[in-house]
Design goal:
heterodimer; A: alpha+beta; Sulfite Oxidase, Chain A, domain 2; 5-stranded mixed sheet; 11 helices; B: mainly alpha; 10 helices; 0% strand
């Protein structure tokens, strides 16, 4: 038997900094306010500068997808450059700053993945990673994305109508609402580990739609953008996209879709019901209590001098959804 | 024993040069990046955050000077207050101008309605007005000219700092931790001036008791 006597100078295993902690040290500093407080000392771009060697060098590997391009989902709007779509994200699971999700999500594991569809359905089903891409024909759809913060993008998504998935599970007649849930994995998602980085949200993130909204052909389950699979910061491997609603409805990295007869309490509604409603339809006539929703800044290429403030359109310019809200007071049900 | 360092005028001169270089070069570099679309996906938001937080940082720094000078017994340091305060104003002015030029893109009617309808914007604007008055009355000759009113006027910096803190915490969606840290720092800095804030109250109380006593004597 070999008995090893460690040298006094040897580092014991319990002294080694945990890999997670090591990789997230900047995140931890940031959560303590140091980086914010020293914003004057370093340029805002310093976050992207690689000071310590290893982290932020690896980029999540996406792969090309095969898809059709139905003309009805084409658009004359100028696309937002890919680089901007994948670096300007609200995904508080990876930090509440716009560039945090890119910085903190590159080692996110999407394989294996399980998406389950259950609740008030005849045939509950689960999709594994490969099923996500193979169960239905993939289409490219160019949608406008309007954030509740009054900026917008034009994104070439790849995916299929959520209706396909729901039909396959065969909804029961009692089903009235659809509830979506993001992965809960604090080990991988720093925002779920601590309230400093997670923006005070109670995780997992939950979103919901009325069943007719979920069945609308525009409602998309997206698995890719710009011809490739989704990167983590945009909600890999599968996310919802509801183009006529504010961006926060379009929940990312979905693991569960549940049909129910009760209206769910969604995440932002729980945080501030007076500011973020269940419907969250894009509506230039109903302002956010703290800012106007009548216009928006379209993010395309170009610096400060780009004149990109445009008028916000009702339902984000998707009139085909109007009939679903025919007899509703949209000021009350915002 | 370590000899306490005396901060001489040449030291403060050095500090001032560093301050000018740091504050100006950061501003130029960041605006250059924003103009050339190298400041993240949304250069407008990035520049608003940079100038806003920058102004608040500088204001806190200017509020740190007097307590620090007192604590270290280094009167020379006080001469740093004016340039730091002026840079806080400059950053705040950049913040507002960028909001008007690049966020609202010179839609004056929108500016007016946002100023009136959105409390966090009104509060920030009032703070900017206060800082402008302080900046406009910051020269030595005006200070001499104003006499005792000058100090009274410049005490409004405390009101401005509280309004800025409110503007900040009111503007975020749900990520409150950083604004809360800023508010705690500000309150700590204001707490070092406890005596100053309590003085008028105390003297008022004293006056009342004195008049009461003299009335008693008369009786």
């Amino acid at each position: 038997m070999l008995i090893r006597t460690p040298k006094p100078s040897e580092i014991k295993e319990n002294q080694v900094t945990d890999e997670n902690v090591y990789h997230n040290r900047r995140q931890i500093l940031k959560s303590m306010g140091f980086i914010g407080a020293s914003a004057l000392m370093v340029s805002p771009h310093a976050k992207a500068v690689n000071w310590f060697g290893d982290d932020e060098t690896k980029t999540f590997k996406t792969r090309p997808l095969e898809f059709s391009q139905p003309p009805m989902y084409h658009s004359d709007d100028a696309l937002t450059p890919e680089q901007k779509i994948i670096s300007h994200n609200n995904f508080y699971e990876f930090g509440s700053g716009k560039s945090d999700p890119l910085a903190n999500s590159q080692s996110f594991k999407v394989k294996p993945w399980t998406l389950s569809i259950d609740g008030l359905v005849e045939k509950p089903l689960t999709l594994n990673y490969d099923d996500l891409y193979k169960s239905f024909d993939l289409e490219e759809r160019i949608y406008r994305l309007r954030c509740v913060e009054a900026w917008s993008m034009v994104v070439p998504w790849i995916g299929y109508s959520l209706a396909n998935l729901i039909k396959k599970a065969q909804p029961l007649s009692a089903a009235k609402y659809v509830v979506f849930e993001t992965l809960y994995d604090p080990k991988q998602m720093p925002g779920q580990r601590n309230r400093f980085t997670g923006g005070g949200i109670d995780y997992p993130y939950v979103e919901g739609l009325r069943l007719d909204e979920a069945m609308h052909p525009l409602t998309l389950m997206s698995v890719g953008l710009y011809g490739k699979t989704l990167p983590p910061q945009n909600g890999a491997p599968i996310r919802l996209v509801v183009p006529w609603k504010y961006g926060f409805k379009s929940i990312k990295s979905v693991v569960r879709i549940r049909l129910t007869d009760k209206k769910p309490k969604t995440t932002w509604e729980q945080l501030a019901a007076s500011e973020y409603g269940f419907y969250a339809n894009v509506n230039p006539q109903v302002d956010h209590p703290r800012w106007t929703q009548a216009s928006e800044r379209r993010i395309t290429s170009g610096g400060l001098f780009t004149r990109n403030r445009i008028e916000t359109q009702m339902f984000n310019g998707y009139p085909e959804v109007v009939s679903m809200y025919a007899d509703m007071d949209l000021r009350k049900f915002y | 024993m370590i000899k306490p360092v005396r901060i001489s005028p040449s030291h403060t001169f050095g500090i001032k040069i560093t301050l000018h270089l740091a504050a100006l070069s950061l501003l130029f570099v960041t605006y250059y990046q924003a103009f050339t679309d190298q400041l993240g996906a949304d250069p407008v938001k990035a520049i608003l955050h940079f100038t806003g937080i920058g102004a608040f940082n500088l204001l806190l720094l200017s509020l740190l000077i007097s307590p620090l000078a007192k604590y270290l017994r280094q009167g020379q340091l006080v001469t740093l207050r004016r340039p730091i305060g002026l840079y806080a104003f400059a950053y705040a002015l950049c913040h507002f101008s960028s909001y008007l030029l690049f966020e609202l893109q010179l839609e004056w009617s929108l500016l007016l309605s946002e100023l009136l309808k959105r409390p966090y914007i009104s509060v920030g604007f009032i703070a900017l007005l206060i800082l402008s008055i302080l900046a406009a009355t910051s020269t030595k000759s005006i200070q001499r000219h104003m006499g005792r009113t000058w100090q009274k006027t410049h005490n409004w910096v405390y009101v401005a700092s509280l309004l800025i803190a409110l503007h900040y915490i009111w503007s975020v969606k749900s990520e409150l931790i950083q604004p809360i840290i800023y508010i705690l720092v500000l309150l700590a800095l204001l707490a070092t001036r406890k005596a100053k804030f309590l003085k008028p109250i105390k003297s008022a109380l004293n006056r009342r008791t004195k008049t009461a006593q003299s009335k008693k004597k008369l009786a």
